[in-house]
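Recall that a protein's primary structure is simply its ordered list of amino acids. Everything else, from secondary elements to tertiary packing, is in principle encoded there. The following example makes that idea concrete.
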Amino acid sequence: MIEKLVMATNNANKLREAREILAPLGIEVISQREAGADVEADENGESFEENAVIKAQTVYDIVGLPVIADDSGLCVDALGGRPGVHSARYAPKGEECDKLLEELKDVPEDERSARFECWLVFMDYECLDVVTGSCEGRISTEKRGDNGFGYDPVFLYGSRTLAEMSADEKNAISHRGAAMRALYDLLKERYGE
């Protein structure tokens, strides 16, 4: 069993979620900065998987410990899957929802399907594994809710946006939560007792 792994992020929310989900396995999850890898990977891949592998490899090369890394984003069917792998760079921070609503202003409500996708990579000295998670929904016609970040105020899951949900409600259905639970299953099968 591995005792410690590094998450290729310094995002406190991602770390908290990984720690909570992997805690029953007795694995300590630390940030890349805590592991001594204060580096920014060049995410120039053409897919979520490529970017996650780039992040994992960048950190692994520095720390030499098992690493997990993810890349995720919003894929809107009416936009041919955009913003997709460019979700973080689609618009300036805080303007993502406004740009998305503008692009979709003439798209009928029943054609606004979308999904958040997360690709998560586990890398150690002997293997590289990839797990995924997704959250299916649609894009609303207006921003709603004060919780969350990024596209949460316009992403409808059922009748509510992610920004109208508590953190626990969102984590239970989120794409990253689903990928983390898949990673838990993989690690438990491989290293469990």
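The mean pLDDT is 92. The chain has five helices and seven strands.
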